[in-house]
Write a structure and sequence with these properties.
Elements: H1 6-14, E1 20-25, H2 30-41, E2 45-51, H3 53-63, E3 72-74, H4 78-90, E4 96-99, H5 104-111, E5 125-131, E6 140-142, H6 152-168, E7 175-180, H7 190-203, E8 211-217, H8 218-222, H9 224-230, E9 242-244, H10 248-261, E10 265-271, E11 277-278, H11 286-300
Length: about 300
Amino acid sequence: MVYSTFQELILAAKGKPHIARMAVAAAGDEHTIQAALKAREEGIAIPILVGDKAAINSILSALGQSVPAEDIYDVADPIQAAHKAVELVRNGTAHFLMKGLLDTSVLLKAVVDKDHGLGKGGVMSHFTIFEVPSYHKLLVPVDGGMVTYPTLEQKKCILENTVNTMRDMGYDCPKVGVVTCVEKLNPKMPETVDADTLKQMNLRGEITGCTVEGPISYDCAVSKEIAEHKGFKSPCAGDCDILLAPNIHAGNIMGKMLAVTCGATMAGFIVGARCPIVMTSRGATAKEKYLSIVISALAAQQ
């Protein structure tokens, strides 16, 4: 399975036999509640709202909507709301987590709490997926939001987090491009050395469930014509699903260029914890938050 559009992902999420439950920390935010209610309306996720009950009810009233009383937890303090939302996932009441109107650092602190959090002891990374008008399928550039300057081992973890998530979403064998500015191994460029090492790990069976190519330049990763013109032969050339960036700057710039300059639609969440964590910015639109819920619900079903 390979997805070309978000609509295909939405249909896949709707087709699941069970509806995932989502705990929203500090849920008193209009766009967040709008997105959560849309997901509920379409049978994708059932929201559990944790936050200032008065603010939540005010937003619901303005939207002409309601949520069962048992699915609203009155926890006004954002820090306590984060811990309560995490607790709901830990005890099985919810299947995944979403950030509402609070700082990312506050929610992450609750997530990584050694005694009561959702960490698994490994690397957590940022999963983003884009529908790009000029590309023939959905594209996943990582990691532009969590790991700043990943070591080789951390790159391996980011890659595995991403591949495992895509397989949970229904992909069979994602194609991975470990992107650098050139397509050849150059000992003076450590990024290319890491890229080649990750490819060799894949060939030896140390990284499974995907096909890894690296080093590969961005243009060869997304354009078969350019790859052929350069004489670069690879099953991933012009057909990558995942683009693994050398650091957070490259990953972040890549994502923003796709969204701002190329008109791409995006969604994203945190992976590598015990459950998906929808961690959109507070300025994200209701649509972006909704799509992030869709892909998180799809991954959480596994």
